[in-house]
């Protein structure tokens, strides 16, 4: 019944919050019954104030939890429990197991609080415990070896516990980032496909079959781009030099009569996926255009691809040694799908693009700054 009520209260919250609410509720119930049993068992020896505060804190936490105040419920149980342990340490039974209680509190803070708070609580409780041990030592109740052994074991326990939780938290955070990255990439790819459809829908002078074929070619191109990027991706960053090499390797299979030469800088900075995808699409579009529109008289034509990195700025050059660009070429028509696609991708990169032709060859030049692009993505 109570779990159903929790589900109604926290049903629209995220998965981690719902689980945390359930864990807190179960822990509050256990704390309440443990405190009740401890108080009843030793009622003849007097009130155990530590367990009394312990039990009251669990009831307060449950009440706040059922009111939808999860954060306040967590703070109530954690800090009131710490107060209860402090009271028990000062006024409780001398032969009580304070060390186990201290370890329990540290684990509670690790699960429900931040690492910094856990470290502060560990230092606080360790200091009080050291004072208690010193008092016991002066009274001849424990030896110095016992004190040293206890403190060292406490430090070891806290270190292992904090590192373990830190690793688990990092893994959970990494999974969360990975899931968000997947959603983001899927959304971007769907937007790109939608853009492809709009480009070919607005194309004029082509039959429906030709538009479908080109649309299919660009979808396959996008798939190959992602294959090339994922092969070179490390820590959500991509080496553009490696992407270029992979793209050229894939495109070279399409035409054996053309030779593609690559010249890249060795000091290029790695970029994010969001930047690498439009960059790779521009490269593929330029190379496919060079292969598609090359003159049949130049069967052994050479396509030169050069990527330079200087002063935080990339410069991509795609040049061929063919007959150049004729006046009736598709590149002289800004409304073509290929040119429009490149223009859109250049805008995403916040870069500049120009096309040069002198009759003996053609050259496409793309320039963009990695710092400007990163800043635009962050904004």
TrEMBL record:
Residues of the Histidine kinase domain: 181-372
Signal peptide: none
GO molecular function, one term: protein histidine kinase activity
TM spans (from-to): 21-43, 49-67, 72-91, 97-113, 143-168
Keyword Membrane recorded: yes
Keywords for the protein's UniProt record, in alphabetical order: ATP-binding, Kinase, Membrane, Nucleotide-binding, Phosphoprotein, Transferase, Transmembrane, Transmembrane helix
Reaction(s) the record says it catalyses: ATP + protein L-histidine = ADP + protein N-phospho-L-histidine
Database matches in PROSITE patterns: HIS_KIN (PS50109)
EC annotation from Swiss-Prot or TrEMBL: 2.7.13.3
Superkingdom of origin: Bacteria
Protein name per Swiss-Prot or TrEMBL: histidine kinase
Protein species of origin: Leptospira kmetyi
């Amino acid at each position: 019944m109570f779990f159903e009520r929790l589900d109604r209260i926290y049903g629209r919250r995220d998965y981690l919050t719902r689980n945390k609410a359930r864990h807190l509720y179960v822990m509050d119930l256990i704390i309440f019954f443990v405190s009740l049993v401890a108080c009843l068992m030793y009622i003849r020896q007097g009130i155990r104030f530590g367990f009394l505060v312990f039990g009251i804190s669990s009831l307060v936490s449950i009440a706040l939890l059922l009111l939808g105040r999860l954060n306040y419920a967590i703070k109530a149980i954690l800090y009131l429990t710490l107060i209860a342990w402090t009271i028990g340490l000062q006024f409780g039974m001398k032969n009580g197991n304070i060390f186990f209680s201290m370890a329990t509190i540290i684990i509670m803070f690790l699960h429900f609080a931040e690492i910094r708070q856990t470290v502060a609580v560990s230092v606080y409780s360790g200091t009080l415990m050291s004072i208690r041990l010193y008092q016991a030592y002066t009274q001849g109740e424990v030896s110095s070896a016992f004190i040293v052994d206890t403190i060292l074991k406490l430090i070891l326990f806290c270190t292992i516990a904090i590192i373990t939780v830190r690793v688990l938290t990092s893994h959970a955070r990494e999974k969360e980032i990975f899931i968000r990255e997947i959603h983001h990439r899927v959304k971007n790819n769907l937007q790109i496909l939608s853009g492809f459809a709009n480009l070919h829908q607005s194309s004029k002078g082509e039959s429906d079959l030709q538009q479908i074929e080109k649309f299919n070619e660009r979808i396959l191109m996008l798939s190959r781009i992602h294959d090339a990027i994922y092969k070179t991706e490390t820590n959500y960053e991509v080496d553009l030099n490696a992407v270029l090499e992979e793209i050229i390797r894939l495109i070279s299979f399409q035409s054996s009569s053309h030779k593609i030469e690559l010249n890249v800088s060795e000091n290029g900075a790695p970029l994010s996926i969001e930047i690498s995808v439009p960059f790779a699409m521009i490269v593929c579009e330029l190379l496919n255009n060079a292969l598609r529109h090359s003159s049949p008289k130049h069967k052994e034509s050479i396509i030169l691809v050069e990527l330079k990195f200087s002063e935080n700025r990339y410069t991509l050059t795609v040049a061929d040694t063919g007959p150049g660009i004729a006046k009736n070429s598709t590149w002289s028509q800004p409304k073509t799908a290929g040119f429009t696609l490149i223009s859109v991708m250049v805008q995403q990169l916040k870069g500049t693009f120009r096309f040069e032709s002198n009759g003996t060859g053609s050259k496409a030049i793309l320039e963009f700054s990695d710092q400007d692009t990163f800043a635009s993505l962050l904004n």
